[in-house]
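Researcher: I'm preparing a figure for a lab meeting and need a structural model of a single chain. I don't have an experimental structure, so a prediction will have to do for now. The sequence is pasted below. Please return the structure as tokens so I can convert it later.
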Amino acid sequence: MTFGEKIRNLREDADLTQKQLGDAVQMSQRKVSYIECGRHEPDMADIVALCKFFAVSADYLLGLSNKKK
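Model: Understood. Here is the structure written out token by token.
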């Protein structure tokens, strides 16, 4: 599963729209969409914000571990 797919799954599991997630982590809806579909590589600040918001490890999002925490 790609980084974007993981973000999409976490977002959908939380029953959030791309806009709601973007607002929560200081990103535009477009940037969330681009990350989810793989058109944009998130920077370190984006990764940290997403990890904190979803309470998952960076290792999980980056595909280094299957454990969310």
